Amino acid sequence: MRRLRVLIASIAITTAMLVGSTGTAGAYGGGAGHDMWQVGISFNCNSPDFCGPNLGGFWAWAEFDRSADGTQTWGDVEGAGCFHTLGGGGVRGGGSAIHISVEIESWVIEDGMFFIDGEETDSFRGTKTTFDVVHFPTGVPAAPGHYTAEDVFGFDPPPGVAIQIQVAFRPAK
To answer: Alpha-carbon distance 70 to 14, whole Å?
Structure first.
């Protein structure tokens, strides 16, 4: 019993020292000298009637930055997709995954959504493909809020299909 108390006390002291010695973490996006949008996207499709035999999902995070005077724009996108056929994942089921990374060199808001220019790199089955993205419509609303397929694309998805987009905005100070 005494050893247990010593162990618990030791863990508590170590934890307190670690918490007390950690500095503040700098969140991605830097300081408050620029406008910043952060976006989370989730798309899942497990309905063969809607998606055909190619089931799975795609998940992404994006950040859109704009200088306080609006003269410069930049950002990043990181995404992952996992796809499988009706038989499930693996070799027999035809499962695969992809990673998508976009270095946004510039962007604009048109018709209430982000359009991007930059360089995209896709990693799929051990190969990387890089190409330019020119005035690509993201489908992501620029207004802060939570959006569903009905909000963005104008339809109510069937059971087994979910599309969610979350947009947060922090203005420059």
So the answer is: 47
Span between the terminal Cα atoms of the chain, in Å: 55
pLDDT digits (tens, 9 = 90+) for 23-55: 333 445 555 689 999 999 999 998 989 888 778
The number of distinct structural domains making up the chain is 1
In a domain, 11, yes or no: no
Among residues 108, 164, 98, 163, the alpha carbon closest in space to that of 138 is found at 108
Parent domain of 115: 34-170
173 pLDDT tier (thresholds 50, 70, 90): confident
Cα angle, residue 123 at apex, residues 117 and 126 outer, rounded to 5°? 155
Give the number of other Cβ atoms within 10 Å of residue 122's Cβ: 16
Q: Dihedral sign, CA of 151, 152, 155, 156?
A: negative
Tokens 């000298």 identify what position?
33
3-class SS at 139?
A: strand
- Whole-model pTM over 0.90: no
The Cα 3–Cα 96 span in angstroms is 50
